[in-house]
Design goal:
- It contains 7 helices and 24 strands.
- β10 and β11 form a beta hairpin.
- Helix content is about 15%, strand content about 40%.
- The protein has a 4-stranded antiparallel β-sheet with strand order 3-2-1-24, with no helix packed on it.
- By secondary structure, the chain is mainly β.
Length: about 425
């Protein structure tokens, strides 16, 4: 154990971890031609390290490969890319498949949150909740912050908001990506909801796009179709298409444990409790008629908005609590988990955190995975997290960005930082 600690401290002191103090971004590094795509990305802020001038014993002389791999696997992900520049041997170690597996399983990894700082470019900062650091970051494939974005198990799926025909699946850490064929079905439609589900063992994945279009001349009927992409066959299939009466689809959906969940909105002007509903669709059934409306689940209370997310294959919803007499006005935020067809309340945001956002809109950004949920107001860069296991609310470190003009909007999404998975 003493040898391991000595080597770890040696790694902490090497010049490969140097970075200028202040706001800067990582320099792109490349291990070799085979993994060039895996490491070519603008990396993160790091604190400065003092370099010892004392003589050190070369690590290569005292450690076998397997032990060196295990030690390096405990470094922060931000340091892994610099390690490959130290020497040829370390380059080969951190490029190997065995190391990628060790890195994924050697330590706890919590989901990061990417916050857009521009509405015109895919740039911003990514937050690491373990080290409590913000890293300068540029996303691959994504055009602007208005694109539809969904994530699962280290992969991020994105679709443009104009033609809604450009779809990509990428790993934002390694920058590997794949462009998908545009989904079938309606060419022009009013709303679309995007989601992705990755199999953690095989790394195969499904992408779903739900399209909603108002029936011409009818204010309460909407045509809704479900389109599923299978990475194994690399093909799309339209698995459901029907007319909803009194409800329309929106832009919120998620896949949990083989079930697609779609948040729907009332078009019938009914009682406040009917402002939102939840439709479920089993991806394994692939039935096509009347399936959606037979599985309508009511909301736990009047909501101003709802955000759906997959936390360890459980459906979790973060919703804005509407006032009793004015359900469209937010008074707080709650978190629920779906058990069967019943909602169980997990927590409500303490008032001091709700006030901490300042002016809070009736709609807001929220996403989560694993055991962590992030909540962000569109009007400010403040970021709040909720630990699902510990039932603990916590502010993130302050994001190094300032609001440049009154109407500037902030948004973002969370993803798992993983090295071993590719689209």
């Amino acid at each position: 154990m003493s040898t391991v600690l000595c080597v770890f401290y040696f790694l902490e002191g090497t010049s490969c971890f140097h970075a200028m103090e202040g706001e800067t971004s990582w320099v792109s590094h490349s291990f070799d031609d085979n993994v060039r795509d895996m490491v070519d990305f603008n990396l993160f802020l790091e604190r400065s390290y003092e370099v010892s001038t004392e003589a050190t014993v070369p690590v290569d002389l005292i450690l076998p490969d397997d032990l060196l791999e295990r030690i390096l696997a405990y470094l922060p992900i931000a340091s892994i890319f610099r390690v490959g520049c130290v020497c040829k041997r370390w380059n080969e170690v951190v490029s190997s498949r065995r190391f990628l597996w060790n890195f994924t399983h050697a330590r706890v990894h919590k989901p990061w949150y990417f916050m857009f700082t521009s509405s015109d470019e895919p740039v911003g900062y990514a937050y690491d909740p373990i080290l409590r650091k913000w890293y300068g970051f540029e996303l691959p494939c994504i055009g602007t912050s208005s694109w539809f974005i969904a994530s699962s198990c280290g992969l991020v799926c994105c679709m443009d908001n104009d033609s809604r025909s450009e779809l990509y699946v990428c790993n934002p850490i390694t920058r590997n990506y794949r462009k998908l064929e545009k989904p079938p079905g309606l060419r022009f439609y009013d709303y679309s909801a995007l989601s992705i589900s990755v199999n953690k063992i095989s790394h195969s994945y499904n992408v779903s796009v739900v399209k909603s279009k108002q029936v011409p001349g009818n204010f309460i009927q909407w045509e809704v179709s479900v389109h599923i992409y299978d990475s194994g066959t690399m093909m799309w299939a339209t698995t459901s298409a029907e007319i909803l009466t009194g409800w329309r689809g929106g832009e919120e959906s998620v896949i949990c444990d083989g079930v697609l969940y779609l948040l729907v909105y009332s078009t019938g002007g009914g009682i406040p409790e009917s402002r939102h509903g939840l439709l479920t669709y089993s991806l394994s059934s692939r039935l096509s008629h009347g399936l959606l409306m037979r599985n309508l689940i009511s909301m736990p209370c009047p909501l101003t908005c709802g955000r759906l997310m997959n936390l360890k294959e459980k459906l979790v919803m973060v919703g804005g609590l509407g006032k009793q007499d004015r359900p469209g006005i937010i008074k707080g935020i709650g978190i629920w988990v779906l058990s069967g067809k019943e909602w169980q309340e997990i927590s409500r945001m303490p008032h001091k955190f709700f006030q901490g956002f300042g002016e809070f809109d009736d709609v807001f950004a929220s996403s989560g995975t694993d055991d962590l949920i992030y909540i962000q107001s569109y009007g400010a860069p403040a970021l709040l997290s909720f630990d699902f296991n510990q039932k603990q609310w916590k502010w993130s470190q302050k994001c190094p960005v300032t609001k440049r003009f009154p109407l500037q909007l902030f948004t973002g999404f969370c993803f798992e930082p993983r090295l071993e998975i590719s689209p």
